[in-house]
Structure formats: structure tokens, C-alpha cells
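New to this. Explain these C-alpha cells.
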Amino acid sequence: MKNQVDALGNKKLLTISIAAYHVEKYLPECLDSFVLPEYAEELEVLVINDGSGEEINKVFSVYGEKYPRIFRLIDKENGGHGSTINTGIREAQGKYFKSVDGDDCVYKEGLRALLEYLKNTRADMIVTDYETFDDISGKIQGHFSGAFPGRKAGRLYDFDEVSGDIFVNMHAVTFRTELLKGMGRSLDEHCFYVDAQYRLYPIPYIRKTAFLNASVYRYRLGRQNQSMAIRSMQKNCSQHERVLEKLLQFYLEEKETLSPAKKAYIQKGIARFAVSQIKIYLSYLPSDKHKQQIITLDNRVCQAEMEIFHQMKNPAVFLLRKSNYKLYRLLSRICREKYHCNQE
């Protein structure tokens, strides 16, 4: 297929934005998974070195020199995961956009299926299957599929029609780039946990969506410094709090313009994030401070939107509220035992 510029000025079909921060050990496996010379005109892979030095650039050079029509390096000052995605969206030349972490990778066959589908779709959001695998053994830990229960793969659906059946993970989603560029919001920089912003900020603008029965993303589990490890979440608790507050602000600013279905979808997403915040508080050794943080969070969510408050469906949250927070210390102990963090 000859490289053409579409009506919106996009020179490529799909942009992959790779966040590369001290992942030189994993980056060759990641980049190898995008080596599809037959799609050199359609595929753009942006390797965004987020201020982590020359090792990333050395790894990139092998691929950039051999496949210059596919790979492009962006070397920038450190700004965090949100900054790499913001940069990727700004620099993207593809009609569609997907974000991939530099320590993860994709299945080539799944990527081929996605590229073929993108050639003839009008979808604003495409959902694909993904897998998790162990960092040490490489064994598959989980497979996540069947995004739209009972719906036909490849068919376009109104988002409002299917949104009640799904909640889309970042690893599963591909967005239309024009939508991301035009939504008027960027992700927080120098901050973890912005995946939630990336999943939810585009929702007000999604009209048509589809899913494919194709495994694309491969997400690595087991790295000790992963942001979702409980110790990392404790260390970066203030950043998690910051993202939660930004999500609540986003919802309050958009709620009057949202359809009931989109409103419910965003409420569910924020509720999940708020439950994670309470789990962080419970994972610390019990104290009056952490108990008060839970009560303050509950009051904040309740004040912002009662429906989000009620969507926080979790046994620990239910018991905390039912007992007027008197079960806090017991639930903290259970949480710490579950996540093996009984000591600071």
C-alpha cells in the first residue's frame, strides 16, 4: 500500500507510542515485536526516551537504522509516563494511536489483524484482547478477551449501546488520534497512575467503538519496581491521590454534557480508582492518620457525586462504611496480610 496522506493530514495508519524510561534490558524484545516491514507505510513506532540516558538511544539505533520508515526516536527531558503519552499524541502521524510501555511488547499476528482492521473502519475506539506474562518465566498469567459479550467482532457499535457491559483497560484500547489531539486535556506529568486519565478523558468524545478477537498487547508482570506493586503504591500514594482528584474534577466539568451511558461509565472508572486509593490506605500499618484519610476520601467522593460513592463496590469499603469505620484496624490487617506488607 503506497503511503498516502488522508483527509485529516495523517501520514500513517497507526502510531505506537512507546514509553522508554530505563527499560534498555527489555526494549529489544519490545521493538522486535513491531518489526513488520510489510507495514512500513502504515505503521509508525515512536520510541520516547524519557530522559533516561544514552542506553535507550543505543538500543533504538539498531532498529532506527534498519527500519527508518517504522521507528522514530524522540529524546526528551524526564517528565514521567504521562509526559511520554502527551508527547506521543502531539507527535503522532497515524490515524489511530496506541500506547505501549517499553518493558512490554505485542503479538505480531494480533498487530497485523489490528492494522488490517484499521484500514476500513470508522471507529473512534477499538478494543483488542491482551495477555499478562511473568517477567522471569515468560509464562502467560492471564488472558483477557471477549470485550463485548454477545457482540460481533469487527462490527461498529454506538458506545452508549455497549458501555454498560465493558470497562476497557489501557492495554486493550486503540483510539482515533484526532480525538486525542482535540479533546483539550493532557495527562499529568511527573506522576504515576495516569493510565486512568488516558482511559477516561476521551470517553465524552467516543461515538463508535468496536472490538477484535485478536491478542495484541503483552503486559509484563513481576517487576519489583512496577508502579502497581503495593510497595510502590505506598511510596507514591500522593500521586495516586492527585490523579483521583483530577478525575473527580474532570467528571464534574463534563457531567452536564454526558449521555447517561457515558456518565455511568466514567463513574464506574473513577469508583474503581477510589477503591484502589482506600486499599493503599489500608495497606499501611494502622494509624489514626490513615483511618482519617479513608473517611476524608469517602466524604470527598460523596460530595462530588453520590453515584460514584455507591459504585465503590468492594467488600472492605462496604464493611468500613457499615461499621462507621470501626472495622478499620481489622480490615487493615487483612489487607496487609493479603499483600504481604505487615511491616513498614
About this structure: The longest strand covers residues 208-221. The chain has a mean pLDDT of 94.
